[in-house]
Amino acid sequence: MATSHDLLTKQRSVTECLAAERCSAANTHPRMKTVCGEMFISDCAVRKWVKIFKGEDARETILHDRKRSGRPLSTSDTAHREKVDCVIRANLKAKQNEIADEVGFSKERVHHIVTTVLGY
Fold first, then answer.
1. What is the span of the domain harbouring residue 36?
2. How far is the C-alpha of 75 from the C-alpha of 83, rounded, in Å?
3. Torsion sign over Cα 8, 14, 19, 20
4. How many structural domains is the chain composed of?
5. Pairwise CA distance, residues 113 & 115, whole Å
6. Residue 43 falls within a domain, yes or no?
7. How many of the other CB atoms lie within 10 Å of CB of 57?
8. With a threshold of 0.85, does the pTM exceed it?
9. Which residue of 63, 87, 92, 98 is surrounded by the most CB atoms within 10 Å?
């Protein structure tokens, strides 16, 4: 069974092909909806994609989402655990807010490291 991400990529591909044939967005949506049924994207999204694929939008034509920078997937690795543990050993009465400020993590992440990972 295809995932929703796979279906979205396929629908973008078909939209790109129809846009290359100069099929309008008004015609593209009904044609694709008959094939895809309930798992189909909105008319607004089709119009946006057709605009992009026809070159009317300044963005690059890509089918897959780009990798985005953002917060790290995990701050529970060894280096992060050691930072938090070092702060706790230096001051056994340190509050989680103080630890978070000192190591530069969110209070929630520090709570997770302190309770779940380190077991304090």
1. 4-53
2. 11
3. positive
4. 2
5. 6
6. yes
7. 13
8. no
9. 87
Q: Are 20 and 53 contacting, i.e. CB atoms less than 8 angstroms apart? A: yes
Give phi and psi for 23, each to the nearest 5: -80, 130
65, amino acid identity: D
Eight-class DSSP state of 69: -
Nearest-angstrom CA–CA distance, 71 and 69: 7
Q: What is the token pair recorded at 68?
A: 């985005």
Structure token digits, residue 88: 């706790």
The residue type found at 63 is L
- Reported as a single tens digit per residue, the pLDDT across 13-69 is 778 788 888 888 788 878 877 777 767 778 788 888 788 777 765 455 555 556 666
